Amino acid sequence: MKDYKKTLQGQAQAELSGAGMYFTLARIAKAHGLEDVSMQFTELANQHADQASFYFTASNRYPQETHALWQFIKGLSKAEEYGEKAILNLSRQLEEAGHKDIAQTVQTFAAQHKYHAQVTHQLVEKYAPQAVKQNNKKRYVCSVCGYEYEGDLESEPENYTCPVCTMPKSAFKLKGE
Ligand SMILES: [Fe+2]
Hints:
CATH topology of the largest domain: Rubrerythrin, domain 2
Structural class: mainly alpha
CATH architecture of the largest domain: Single Sheet
Bound molecules: fe (ii) ion
Strand content: 5-15%
Number of domains: 2
């Protein structure tokens, strides 16, 4: 199953790239005023994205058991907060480099990250088991994506990776240090 898992995740990544490509072609077609072409590429993109989610699910890329799932979403909410800041930084850099239009759009994407953080946070508050909502555990932050791990990271196997960005265990820093 291990080899299988890698193959499934590889296929998921390939489908995701395909989705990105078709969404981009849809955007370009739209810029050319080709609404019908844009809509059809969007449909193809959505099918690729749907296939990617199937392969990710089949390979257990993200937790599916209730407690682990909500623990993951809680940590993911922090990664979205982190994402907002990172994207705002990118927007500032673009603005300084004179790319005002791009910077402005990127700024709206930062706002979307903030919204994602709010949505995931609210879902945790509403649906997560009580044990997940409690904040009395040790917390570690992924230095790459901002995902928060709660609990004893040391007890995870050496090959543990960040569930959001796949960086190794060594990328995590104990929070507050
Ligand atoms: Fe990460």
